[in-house]
Fold each of these.
Amino acid sequence: MEDLLLENIAKTVDLTHAEQEKVMSFFEDEHFKKGELLLMEKKDRCKQLYFVYEGCFRLYSTDDDGEEHNIQFAPEDHWIADIYSFWTNELCLFSMTALEDCTVKTISHDKMEQLFSEVPALERYFRILIQNAYIAYLQRVNGFLSLSATDRYAIFCKKYPQLINRMPQYHIASFLGVKPQSLSRIRAAYKH
Amino acid sequence: MEDLLLENIAKTVDLTHAEQEKVMSFFEDEHFKKGELLLMEKKDRCKQLYFVYEGCFRLYSTDDDGEEHNIQFAPEDHWIADIYSFWTNELCLFSMTALEDCTVKTISHDKMEQLFSEVPALERYFRILIQNAYIAYLQRVNGFLSLSATDRYAIFCKKYPQLINRMPQYHIASFLGVKPQSLSRIRAAYKH
DNA sequence: CGAAAATTTGACATGACTCAACTGGAGTGG
DNA sequence: CCACTCCAGTTGAGTCATGTCAAATTTTCG
């Protein structure tokens, strides 16, 4: 099979060879440079879903003080988009940038609908995808309710080891909901 | 139409009269008394989805100190379940109790699958349902990352006015991630 | 009415934040 | 190859929001 996206889909639903061909024909290849801004909160509309082949993106909000808060990271083999904007065609809730040089496949909303009607199994694939994302966020909320910053960091390390030395620590601090200085102290305490 | 569930579905997808009948035939009516425990974290499996006609449920986790943390409230016209357990048949991540006497309709996993195949539009309905729930949780996470407890409370009041004087305040405090004493002080400051 | 539960309030403790200085590594240009 | 700069990360000292513990007050409900 040999394609990251098809392999990802195959984990959830079975497609015939013909359907696989069909699916691939609906996607576009795109590349983004490290630091590139793809979506701007409250300015842009999210026109496509992104499936990451190489690199890593982040989705974040910016508060009144100009501070950025990381909502989601998407390394290779993950989907990312401003889902709200993508489905409603309203302005984005979040901004999105490339943390590294990235290679992706993208699909627009129209093509997506068309693809659903031609390959119905994909509607199921995306339902399950969102369902899993939803469950992950339930648990993330539970982390904010039940855990200290130290525990949240420990869980992050266990859950996303591939992200831990891949980006500046302040991005991980932001994801965890603490200041970089605090994460630095948490890590210092951790070691000894 | 005159049925809460059918009206709720009609907001998202169109069903024929025959399909509506079909859908209703798949659900069971159930009642629960205030305080009843429906699901126990790490003990039970969630065998059904619940659609609330009357009353209100809460979904919560219990930490190592025995403290409960409210993940979700479900008043009338809302769905609730331990989605993770429901879909995977693993043990529940969360517990669930009735905050009031409740009237619901329920559907099991098997019936759900059967219903999807007989009324395909429902797969779409549930995808959109979960999608919206997912977006709500993205924003809730964003609240924990960006906002003070005071701001989170203000947003809660605006977003869920129907819940505000319907349950003990400590349940709302728990949902917001603060102690009841702190919420009390936040409210005191609010007034003046 | 009386008991139990919920909420408020006070005094104090603590975890995380702020501001600021310092360290160390990566990259640049002379 | 060194000096310089820039940026991430660390560390220290003081502050602030929220937690903790305990008592007082109010509300709920049998």
Amino acid sequence: MASPSPQSEGSSTPERILDAAEALFAERGFAGTAVRDIATRSGLNPASLYNHFESKQALYEAVLERGMRPIYEILDQAASPDDPPDLRLLGELTAHLSRSPNLARLIQHEALTGGGHVLELMRRWLQPMYARATAALELSPKLGDWERDELPLLLMTYHHLIFGHFAMAEALGQVLGLDFLSPEAVRRQTRFLAKVTERLLGADRSGES
Amino acid sequence: MASPSPQSEGSSTPERILDAAEALFAERGFAGTAVRDIATRSGLNPASLYNHFESKQALYEAVLERGMRPIYEILDQAASPDDPPDLRLLGELTAHLSRSPNLARLIQHEALTGGGHVLELMRRWLQPMYARATAALELSPKLGDWERDELPLLLMTYHHLIFGHFAMAEALGQVLGLDFLSPEAVRRQTRFLAKVTERLLGADRSGES
Amino acid sequence: MASPSPQSEGSSTPERILDAAEALFAERGFAGTAVRDIATRSGLNPASLYNHFESKQALYEAVLERGMRPIYEILDQAASPDDPPDLRLLGELTAHLSRSPNLARLIQHEALTGGGHVLELMRRWLQPMYARATAALELSPKLGDWERDELPLLLMTYHHLIFGHFAMAEALGQVLGLDFLSPEAVRRQTRFLAKVTERLLGADRSGES
Amino acid sequence: MASPSPQSEGSSTPERILDAAEALFAERGFAGTAVRDIATRSGLNPASLYNHFESKQALYEAVLERGMRPIYEILDQAASPDDPPDLRLLGELTAHLSRSPNLARLIQHEALTGGGHVLELMRRWLQPMYARATAALELSPKLGDWERDELPLLLMTYHHLIFGHFAMAEALGQVLGLDFLSPEAVRRQTRFLAKVTERLLGADRSGES
DNA sequence: GATGAATGAGGATTCATTCAT
DNA sequence: AATGAATGAATCCTCATTCAT
């Protein structure tokens, strides 16, 4: 059910474990993933895994931490008051997630099972993420015709278009017979995001973007 | 961890089981839900549950079946060549899901764990759903400036704005301190959808909406 | 390592489990006893055991509870201000423990590992036991030449002569090649206790015994 | 759960290990003690421990050996035909055990779990100990009114009053709110032993005390 | 002598499921 | 239709021990 992954050859043991865990947690969720499978995929005995991580839960959090850090950094540096919702930011996020779609699935799993043992992580990660995003949005030029209480909805829309998109990319791709992760598809999604942004927030309808 | 739900008092035993299962599957996913907890929440002994459903898997599918039928029907009757992506359809879906947000979470769980023992269900439910929606979209008047290969992206966007929205409503509501399920919030979301639709697909840029 | 015990045939399942557990806990202590061995000795699958007791710890406490109750009752009814430390009490305790020497070992295990997860039980059982015993002792006629702060030492002496004796009976019996549990040996120990009591607390040195 | 003990600073590594092991074995018994905890308490990695002792079992036996030697020597040199059961012997044992109460607990653990992998040790240590003690007792002057088959019972009594006393000192002290290990308490126990001996074996009933 | 990493065996416990009542 | 009791398989994790460094 889980054979040693080829990509993680030269890396350190903890990294191999994190890779294996990330893939399986993303695919099956926390409860659906057996420690034994993570171990097998890392080429280890399950017991060895506990030399590197204290528990399944701790491993899960390490996976999340490692995955979230770059996203956090992208959000951090992107507090610039540029173009509408910061097309550069959207582009970078899209690029990053297209490279590690597991991450998007992990985050969506988190969001779905919210109430449980991970709500703290949501508080720790998602909330500041939204705080920053809100701040960025408010600096955006043309918010004219959105009500203040529609802002969170706009934000969620972007959340869906980025995280939701890549979280469902693989599954939906299979069902629809498409590939949402090819470089071309990623370019298309980036272009799509720009177009959507232009229409939702963008330049005055009479002028150019 | 799971006490008998008050709302399902007068209903039949299978319905009480389905209610309990729906809530727990939505909250914790398939793997994260224990049959014993479903039984407890239904006021039953775990063994009794097997008088009504053949297995956990069968119960899960029954939950999905029961939940999906009304959605399927909404989609069915809404193949009318009306206004942009059929605002009435969007409104009905929104209304329905706001009443049973569990369903939205279930569907998103399905979408996330795609590969597994549920892919068949995705094929059975999601694919026709998308087929219908695509058909509906293509009948929409102003698709002028969207490329053909952007259509699935538009579709996904609507999927997110409907299913993703209500799937994350509870969790995100907690984190952001908002209530996305109040009647008022549902009205706002419906209005928001209309606005988004108007901008994405709607009225000629020179005319009115 | 543990074959179904013959003595516990007709009894109820929980009782069979308690019997098995008592024997093994007495022999090997809490940490040294495997749930699997208790199950085997009860003629059960380890999982079945959890239909009757919540955990190993809970089972252990049930064993202790069941074993302590009769002792507690003996102590209860023996608050009579009779002869020196109530020879009848000593006799009854001796008789009882000689019939279930496991109990004595269990109590000594408890006393030895004191600090741990069982200290609460010690507080619950041993302390009142000592309180009662102290009260009884103080009513004893000839305490003349014992200092007040020697009372606990006298108490401990009796604790040893009763509980310690039967706790070590089997092991020491093997080493010394004697049988401390035969009816005759029990009578001898009872006589011995009376003699010791006579000398330690008993009758005036000049008068009768 | 086990932090490096302060007292064993300057000592050699094997001694530090023996100290840690003695404390933990005394507290939790053999089965209840994890090699890892011994290592931690010795300030070592579990693996390092195996540079000094072949196995957990070997370490346990080394602890017992080290602890028993002085007792053995005390018993050895005390075969003198002095006063009733050799008050000096009792005093020395009491003094020694009050200084290392762990030892008393260890011995009682041994006595309790008799049947197992330690019975050989009992044979090796306890039996000669009793042999010597018996010899010593028989040289005692006033055994007049004890039957020959009561001798082992007298012996056990002394065993309890010495080993049992210090084995339970800490635990019982906590429950009763007393300190049985303070110098004063040790003096009191010594005095108590003398008094008991006087009454059980001592001076002619008609003469002086 | 010390250690980080590895492991097979076994630890307690939970799981979904069955069956006699 | 309901349940208490039973169970094999699997759960996460700890154990004592080994070995290359």
